[in-house]
Amino acid sequence: MEKEGCIGERMDHSNLEKKIIGISRKTGRDGNNKPSGSALNADETDTVQKDPSGRLSLPELKKEIEEISGLAAFINERLNEFVVGNHDVIDLILLALLNEGHILVEGVPGTAKTTIAKSIAILTGCSFNRIQGAIDLQPADMLGVRIYDQYKKEFVLRKGPVFTNILLADEINRINPKSQGAFIEAMSERQVTLDGITMPMQSPFCVIATQNPHEFEGTFPLIEVQRDRFMFSIRSDYLGPEEELSVIRRANEGMLQWETYSQSLAPILTPLALKHYIQVVRQVSIEEPVLQYIRDLVIATRTHPDIELGGSSRASLALISGGKALAALNNRTYVIPDDIKQVSRAALAHRIILSRDAEVEGVTRGQVLDEILSKIEVL
Q1: 235 lies in a domain?
Q2: What's phi and psi for 87, nearest 5 deg?
């Protein structure tokens, strides 16, 4: 069992392997990227070819949400075979992926962020690229460049690493401000313009950006507008003593070989199936009292005496989308206030700026958010 206060609760599904095989057969929606061991039949695929703009009936929605919950539980179980701890990071990535949102992971290096991102990409059948932040990184290194092909006698596009489904931008605050701006624009607009030609990004598209603490040398902190583009943020810290010992034992027993582990992973989804589930999550319902609760939380960040700059409307949207995705992971077709509470820190912490007096007094963003959550109630 996971400790209280975590982003999502672990699911305990009976016969999970058998259930996932059945789900995988139905989620090979594009017919080309079939999950391992599945045999798609015509009668299996016709049940999932739904109009993404149409509303599902309640029984249909419950069935789809159950599939999402089962798939998320399976992904968590597979990652737990190799990754120690980091449950909140895994859950937040899944929440962001189900909303085509982006996540900013702040903290120390060497905490399995790359492994988690690559593993989720494999399991979801998504393409994966990585950008290593550096002071001399230029926009063309990330977005791409048009070069002259002497054989074709024309300029051709050499796409950059942003053209992928899941992108890991490692040490984003080591990228110079000019390149940061170009990258954030592409991340937000989901398109790249080169030489006057605009090209859409792949879909789904999710950025997992890591950031070193600001006190490290050679960093360029993201400005407020850029941080606001991220749906969630989370602090990644070192493992505790017992978890660190678990890593040491696994390494000693030869259980931390990425090549062996990655070869054991097989896609249980396709990008097309994931896009379908993104549409399903949007149909999770939120009642008016919960919507008003979201409003009150965001307004409280704008009026709190210790906060200089509160959450924008993007914070409200992140709470709505995050609450719906968390409800789906917990096998519910409706959002409850606890869903909003569990995603509130990830959705709000990077969007608020404390007043100078609060910083001098040693007040933290976490303390302020805890105070807001303790005072705001669902009407």
Answers
A1: yes
A2: -60, -40
> Cα dist. 161→4, 97, 131, 171 in Å?
38, 18, 7, 15
Rounded Cα–Cα distance for residues 208 and 103 (Å):
5
C-alpha pair distances (Å), 92 with each of 7, 38, 86, 235: 7, 29, 10, 11
- The whole-angstrom separation of Cα 284 and Cα 325 is 8
pTM of the entire predicted model: 0.83
Q: How many domains does the chain have?
A: 1
The distance of Cα 378 from the centroid of its chain, to the nearest Å, equals 27
Domain membership flag for residue 353: no
C-beta of residue 65 within 8 angstroms of C-beta of residue 333 = yes
Residue 378 makes CB contacts below 8 A (sequence gap 6+) with 289, 290, 292, 293, 337
Beta strands, E only, 201-271: 206-211, 232-236
CA distance 371 to 199: 45
CA 289 to chain CA centroid, nearest Å: 27
- Output the DSSP codes for 182-198: HHHHHHHHTEEEETTEE
Mean pLDDT on 35-60? 53
**Hey, what are 271's tokens?**
């990008």
Q: Is the pLDDT of residue 201 over 90?
A: no
- The pLDDT value given to residue 42: 33
The number of residues in the chain equals: 379
What does the pLDDT look like over 276-321, one tens digit per residue? 999 999 999 999 999 999 999 999 999 999 999 999 999 999 999 9
State pLDDT tens for residues 128-155. 999 998 889 998 899 888 888 788 878 8
159 part of a folded domain: yes
- Give the CATH number, domain containing residue 172: 3.40.50.300
In a domain, 297, yes or no: no
Q: Residue 126: which residues within 8 A CB-CB, separation 6 or more?
A: 120, 164, 165, 166, 204, 269, 271, 274
Q: What is the pLDDT of residue 4?
A: 39
Dihedral sign from CA coordinates of 99, 343, 225, 220: negative
Domain assignment of residue 120, given as a range: 16-283
